[in-house]
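Running log. JK asked me to keep both predictions on one page so they can be read side by side. First protein, sequence followed by its tokens:
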Amino acid sequence: MTTTRSELEAMLKKLHLFGCLARLDELENEPWLTRLVSLESEERTRRSLENRTRIAGLGSYKALCDFDWTWPKKIDRSLVEELFLLRFVAEGANVVLLGPNGVGKTMLLKNLACRALHAGHPVLVRSASDLLADLAGQESSVARARRLRAYVQPAILCIDEVGYLSYDTRHADLLFEVVTRRYERNKSIVLTTNKPFAEWPTVFPNAACVVTLVDRLLHRAELVVIEGDSYRLRDAQERQLRRSTSRRRLKEPPAVA
């Protein structure tokens, strides 16, 4: 594909290759220039993705192709697939994945994070307990403000496993601060929880901010409700059945010829 002069100028500016840009009149027809720009662009894209993935803290996870859509008793597959188009990021909307333990909420969250990273978005993935412990553990208000900025800055903040532990009022206030600052800046949160929002006061007992926190989280949000039994329990039962079958075969006497 032929690259026009204006496209070449834009690419050279983006790559900060100002020496080549200044001499573009004499270099424009050099066959190696377009190749150089292409190689440099590809390498910077690769290094950017690598760096953003390292910062994101994705950890290990199963690919979306391994998600068993037939297992949940209830899931809006079309909504989930639409979320992977990442329109919610441009809209500054949130995504909440609600369902019992083991139905694939974290798997979907991490695959959404991976898709966003490949689309060029800065992403941060943290469990609720790690995020709140990090903020609460800062020894000064200055340090805490700096950490808050780190959680507000990325295009997408993924908060996993809200509801699995109970937190005190201080932790509730810190989560409220994160949600509020991102809400005011139209920045997306992807969150998983095993608790309906009516039960969040049990997650943050005695916290006055819970109602407002939930209101701001859901004001611009896509809610994905998943119902069903645990994948992990199913896998454990299948593994136990395989082992029992294997042990039973080992105990069977050999067939007599």
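And the second, directly underneath as requested:
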Amino acid sequence: MTATTTLAAERKLGVSMPILAGPWYTAILYGIETKAEELGYDIVVLDAGGYSNVDRQLSQVQNLITQQVDAILVDPANPSAFNGVAREARGAGVPLIGVSSPIVASDVPPDGAVSSSHCTLGEMMAAGAWEILPEGGGIGVLAGPGGAFWAEERLRCFKENVADSGIEIVAALSTDQDVAIALTTANDIIQRFPDVKMLYAADDTYGIGAARAVQQAGKCGEIKVLFAVLGEAAQDLMEQGCVDYVVAQKPVTIGSQSVDLADKLISGRAEQGEVRTISPVAVFPSNLAEIDLTEIRQPSGWRPSN
């Protein structure tokens, strides 16, 4: 997918994402596109088509380097695989900015990054789990895409913070980032572990699948559901009583701030290696109506440019 702003600017930013399907990436792209247009950048957006397509994403980043874009905003599918291309970009003088990831490559510091702390997200999800299940119980985990830094870091910190809570993980599965697959996975967990008290989901793609599985089983409110990211479907399911807790990141702000940081790095107005941390918001049914959605979600009906 290629998206270009309406301004015929000479300046150009590359955007590399492991996947563009889902509400999270739509919100990210809204923040990127609107800020790029404001600052006078064309953007080239490339979609690797899934977290398993690491080689394709690497090739796409290399292509952006060859195009001599002014900077590349990247959400790396697997930072361990990005060391070579990160060194290539640095040698070409093309800044790499992590988008929703504080790192781009495991061994090469990023030129800049804008992200929530994924460990903080895991800690906040653990705090919500403690509150919802004060006496503990078994939980099933939809862990996210295998090898994805954000998913692994989120779950690692969640586990550390529920270690003494009486909460026991009875199943943990990594799958492709797809609502239908998440629905099937959650159904399998519910059937295998009929006494499960909660489903943890890495983000709202997995969380929507989990909540729909609980809804189909007629167990909304009985089996609790918690996850990160507050998209429209997540909000609807919370309003229906089938989602109990969401840690809402601010993808619109993350996307916008990533372009702002790239612009400042290009012009020498930001320090090399600057990392901006965007704090998430805890959302329960009780405070859902009070949440400011402008940093969380694109306007209704907005779609990325083609």
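Observation for JK regarding the second prediction: The mean pLDDT is 94.
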